[in-house]
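Chapter review: from sequence to fold.
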Amino acid sequence: MKKGGIKKVVLAYSGGLDTSAIIPWLKENYDNCEVVAFVANVGQNPDELIDVEQKALISGASSCYVVDLREEFVKDYVYPVLKTGALYEGKYLLGTSMARPIIAKAQVEIALKVGADAVCHGATGKGNDQVRFETTYAALAPQLTVIAPWREWQLRSREALIDYLKQRNIPTTATLEKIYSRDENAWHISTEGGVLEHPWNAANADCWAWTVAPEDAPDEAEFVTIGIEKGEVVSVNGHKLSPYACVATLNKIGSKHGIGRVDIIENRLVGIKSRGCYETPGGTIMMEALRGLEQLVLDRDSFKWREQLGLEMAYVVYDGRWFAPYRKSLQAAAESLAEDLSGEVVLKLYKGSVVAIQKQANNSLYNEEFATFGEDEVYDHRHAGGFIRLYSLSSRIRAINTNNQKRS
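The token string follows.
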């Protein structure tokens, strides 16, 4: 049954099997509407972008926009989250979660530019991405109709999608054998499906795409110097680089040492548990560097507050609420804390581990004269007694009251 009222749709297009089938499906089911393909370059494998415009046109798109979002993605999405220290469920560095809002935002901008009535994505009805795309659409252009084919069509298998394209003489390089589902951008690559669908199966070598196995990493450690200004990584080994170049450089260095592998069973927003292998080599190095510098600069209460910000931010980003006021308020707090977070950190990379071994900062609160276990002239140990007496005053009063009640 054809649906009317939609004249032009902008599709978030990847060139893969799903979105290639979506283009003719939209035209057939939405009264031969015009389909504009939008491709976001967020740092995925360049091979995926080869001939992507031609693929979209062959599938039936009227035009195809390829937008380079790599620098904006790292600078305006990755770096702000990194300042908060956000880790979803203590493990996941939010690679896919951070990419979706910038993709959806750019898609909306194209839709408004070309005068589209609707936007469309290829996310399934089981995953988190449908939420992330659609909350962005709602926040930025609620007037646009949202089309989610996986919630409408009857195509339920890879074989069905291939047959669908074959019947319409639309070429595809996809095959029936696709064991794993992968998502790649400048920050990370994720792998799901295949042997990972059973939690008792150990991840095999095919589950990892970027990093070498830690046991196969070099036997010699490598030392990396990270320069940080106001909570942002600005240099690697003394070379000033753009945010994207910093990540790309550290990805190469970290990958050869097996850095940044995570095998996690996570709780999806829709209530399903899923398992994925995530590789975030550069991000893991950056996270360790920033957290190491915080140890010098942040006082106890500020550090505790930053940890709370990270916990909240992890859920906000994972749940697709990037453009919500709550995310902006959390970010403002993190930016304030990061004002003094400038310095340099040296990290040791060795067979899957990364450790900050040297740290320095102009705003460091660490003072060797106070911290030393040797003799010093700046700290009077006798002062600690008065502090402890005041600190424990409520406990002392409670005990006195309890003893008095027992006597009466």
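Two observations follow directly from the output. The CA atoms of residues 205 and 213 lie 8 Å apart. The mean pLDDT is 94.
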